[in-house]
Structures are given as structure tokens and as C-alpha cells.
Amino acid sequence: MYRNDGFRELERPECLRLLAKAPVGRVVHTRHALPAVLPVNFWLDDDGSVVLRTAADSGLVRAVDGAIVAFEADEVDAAAHSGWSVVVTGTASVVGDAAERRRLDRDVPCSWAPSPREVFVRIEPQLVTGRELVGGLTAYGLGRFF
Predict the structure, then answer these.
(1) Model pTM?
(2) Which of 142, 19, 5, 4 is CA-nearest to residue 72?
(3) Can you say how many angstroms the Cα of residue 1 is from the centroid of all Cα atoms in its chain?
(4) How far apart are CA 86 and CA 12, in angstroms?
(5) Is the separation of the CB atoms in 90 and 48 below 8 Å?
(6) Helix H or strand E encompassing 20
(7) Is 38 within 8 Å of 30 (Cβ atoms)?
């Protein structure tokens, strides 16, 4: 971002606050040496990590376990030309600890595509960034470009 480009950079606490209210986000990972993006519902843990509940035998689990991934969520108001976007970058891993799985089973919402055998994937937040555009304003004071 350039200084005065109309976007406001968000601090980590604000990023996490916004992320906690988003119902859906996107996991960005590598598949066959190419970028892949998959929409998912998620839960934000108290430490800021992103937790997914997904099928144990899913391609997502195979692709992300042990890999560095990005997770993005946003909210956009197209009519007002405003919104925010938060990106969490970190290592994803399947939760193996039995006590932790029991806790997550209580706390994490059900997957929108439930499976008989589910696992939890945790994305540890090594980098959290975000930005916001309010009212479609830019450094030039224009709300629309024609």
C-alpha cells in the first residue's frame, strides 16, 4: 500500500476482531505447484489461530498439513464502496492432541459440508495483516472511477 492511497492499515487486534465476525474465509494453498483457493467456514481461537473442521480424508487436509498457507476473510459493501480484508499467514497442521480435539469439538462450529470422520486444522498466525477502505474514498477524494 502506498501512503494516502485511501486504504487504512489495520493493527493485529483490529484484524482479529474483524476476522472473528466473518462467517466464511478462504484458504490459499499450493496444489500441483499452482495456487489454489478454497472457501471454508472457520473459527478463530483465543490465540488468534484459525481453526477449520473438515473431512479427515479431504484433499484440503492432504494439501495443507505441515504447509505454510494464507487465510483471508473480508467484508465488502459494494454500494458504499467500502470494506475490509484480513490475511493470516502461517503453518497449517492437523490437531493431534486428544484433549485439544475434544475442546475444539465443543467450540468449533460444524462444517458446512459435514463428514462422518472430521479433523481440525489449525493455522498458526505468524503474520496477520489487514486493510480497510471506508466510503470508497481515495487520496484523491474520488468515490468512483469512470
Answers:
(1) 0.87
(2) 19
(3) 20
(4) 9
(5) no
(6) helix 12-21
(7) no
